[in-house]
Amino acid sequence: MMRILHTADWHLNDRLGRIDRTDDLRKGVERVAAHCREQKVDVLVVAGDLFSELARPDALRETIRHWQDVFADFLNGGGTILTLTGNHDNENFCQTLRHAMTLAAPAGRHPGERVPPGRLYLAAEPTFLRLRDRTDTFDVQFVLMPFPTPTRYLKGEGGQKYGSPDEKNRLLTEAFNVALKDIRKHPKFDTKAPAVLAAHITVFGSEIGASLFRLSEQEDIVVQGEQFHEQYDYVALGHIHKPQFLAYPHVRYSGSIERLDLGEQHNALGAVLFEIGPKGREGQPVVLPLGGTPIYEITIADPTEAIPRLRAEYPDAHNDLVNLHIHYTAGEHNLEEVLRDLEQIFPRWYARDWKETGALGPSLAGEADRTKSFAETVREFLNTELMNHMDGDRDALLAIADELIKDCE
Q: Which pLDDT tens digit goes with each residue over 367-399?
């Protein structure tokens, strides 16, 4: 029996507004590793988008180091990690990482090759490999299909020429389907043997949720996948963050390991455990919970009433990610004090905006107060506008403004 854990869309080193999500996402990875240990998992499948496109090179290096620490026991015990690239993974970085891993331990370079356990494999292009179960009695075939991009799927100079986004999407969809058919036609692919498909793609009929994550529907690639449930014992999908299965329990999106924006606030986070025997899938997949960080938005209509109430209602919101919408009345509320009080309740607010709703106080977009000098007007404007910025950034910008004002004077 081979026990396999399916997860996807880690987006490591991502950000939400002003908040660095590194610690949140690493905790998600650690929860996945705990399930691998507790459930005696043989293979961990990560179906794309391992890294955030916002990650810096030094952050990527630290992320790889974190993997080494978290999964050392799993790999040393013979566990295997199979990963593939998604639309948010940097292609150059992932190709370099894959080449480095292959150079260190050459394996999996030929389609259908049986690869040794106890390693991490990264598929940056369509890949077909086999893994032996721990009892050394049968192989499981794994087909790893990264998100379709011209570099990954449209080979040759002529293949990467297209006249419009629609034509590019059509070519990529065709290339994805052709690559999948070619793998199944390969001499080493046994249609009667156990097989798992892992893909980072939108499959027709899936429910996207509030939105695709940093990708418009016009940029997305959609495949039919109407035969996936017959062709594979399990289909491990990534790309859509809303957990779901598509008509059949063994064709499913695991969802992400964390809630990544407000549109995902209601997502139930989990990883999917399933078992493959010599004759195929055994039993039904089981979802293992992953916890996660609460994300929500709050509108403050009257700070005088709302702030004491919010303190009582959210006594443990120090880790929550919050989008604040503030309405205040000039002359009645001190905006700086309101923002300070709210930051004490919700220290990890990731975005906030405010609107003056009373009759008092001049609008910044209206006529300037002619009793103030040019320098006073500029400083007052900047102090108000930069309240939404980090202290270090605000101080630096104000210092630059002071120098420019001095030059003007």
A: 445 556 677 777 777 776 666 566 667 777 778
* Domain carrying residue 165: 2-289
**First and final CA of the chain: distance in angstroms?**
79
Question: What's the whole-model pTM score?
Answer: 0.84
Virtual torsion, Cα 27, 82, 250, 199, nearest 10 deg? 100
β-strands 244-246, 248-253: how paired?
Answer: antiparallel
- Going by their DSSP bridges, the two strands 202-203 and 139-145 should be labelled as unpaired
Query: Is 280 in the same domain as 321?
Result: no
- Residue 150: count other Cβ atoms within 10 Å of its Cβ: 16
Question: Are 107 and 243 members of one domain?
Answer: yes
3-state secondary structure 335-355: HHHHHHHHHHHCCCEEEEEEE
100: Cα separation from own chain's centroid: 24
Residue 131 contacts residue 114 (beta carbons within 8 Å) = yes
- 34/31 Cα distance (integer angstroms): 5
Neighbours of 181 (CB within 10 A): 10
334 plus 280 within the same structural domain: no
What is d(CA 39, CA 245) in angstroms, rounded to the nearest whole number? Answer: 22
* b/e per residue 334-345 (b: at least 16 CB within 10 A): ebeebbebbeeb
Write down how long the chain is. Answer: 409
